């Protein structure tokens, strides 16, 4: 069941989304060579405390997970695609880092992600990140009243495939609101004109993920959470929480 949010509820979700935006910005600014992933998690946790917000990530345990998620920030490095658990690993020059963060404020949730390189970037990594961001922008552009979920999926997939990148099979965006994951699912590849019609008041987390090697294959790391590319190539992730409105898409997690 898809809950259509009122304009007042969307405004409240924007407030939650801005906590997410501040945390991602703070974690990005703190990321440097020698900084540990646990230190980035603590930076994000501090933003939650200051805002009086809660984490929808901490303690989250979907059916596939062997244990509850132990942090407020997902940090995925190099060949990790998503769901990376923060550890004592210290960032190295040239690491490609994807951070994903959620916040719950006033009963509403926001969710967003970004990717960047620490230190001196490889041109191939910059192209990968730029493609993820372009795919996200294309998906948001398609998120208008009267379109369908398939139009968002097609827009994302076209950008990713045209660049020669893989798309992790079975992973994509989702509805969001009072809970982090709600209906409908938002695939990162699909046929235009298919799926649920978009209506004013729907709120979606749109999140393309791209694999540099061009394959769609991945596996779970021994921690049971982190998803890694099978070919060892690097991955990037971009995400925003977006409200569908009669005035056009509204990015609730804009930084």
UniProtKB/TrEMBL annotation:
Pfam families, A to Z: Peptidase_M24
Catalytic reaction annotation: Release of N-terminal amino acids, preferentially methionine, from peptides and arylamides
InterPro entries referenced in this protein's UniProt entry, alphabetically: Creatinase/aminopeptidase-like, Pept_M24, Pept_M24_MAP, Pept_M24A_MAP1
Key word Metal-binding present: yes
Enzyme Commission number(s) of this protein: 3.4.11.18
Binding site for a divalent metal cation 1: 100, 111, 239
Domain Peptidase M24 positions: 12-246
Binding site for a divalent metal cation 2: 111, 174, 207, 239
Cofactor annotation comment: Binds 2 divalent metal cations per subunit. Has a high-affinity and a low affinity metal-binding site. The true nature of the physiological cofactor is under debate. The enzyme is active with cobalt, zinc, manganese or divalent iron ions. Most likely, methionine aminopeptidases function as mononuclear Fe(2+)-metalloproteases under physiological conditions, and the catalytically relevant metal-binding site has been assigned to the histidine-containing high-affinity site.
Binding residues for substrate: 83, 181
MF terms (GO), sorted A to Z: initiator methionyl aminopeptidase activity
Keyword annotations of the record: Aminopeptidase, Hydrolase, Metal-binding, Protease
Group of enzyme by EC: hydrolase
Cofactor: Co(2+); Zn(2+); Mn(2+); Fe(2+)
Family, per entry: Belongs to the peptidase M24A family. Methionine aminopeptidase type 1 subfamily.
Oligomer status and interactors: Monomer.
NCBIfam families, per the entry: met_pdase_I (TIGR00500)
Function description: Removes the N-terminal methionine from nascent proteins. The N-terminal methionine is often cleaved when the second residue in the primary sequence is small and uncharged (Met-Ala-, Cys, Gly, Pro, Ser, Thr, or Val). Requires deformylation of the N(alpha)-formylated initiator methionine before it can be hydrolyzed.
PANTHER family found in the cross-reference section: METHIONINE AMINOPEPTIDASE (PTHR43330:SF27)
HAMAP family the record matches: MetAP_1
Name of this protein: Methionine aminopeptidase
Gene: map
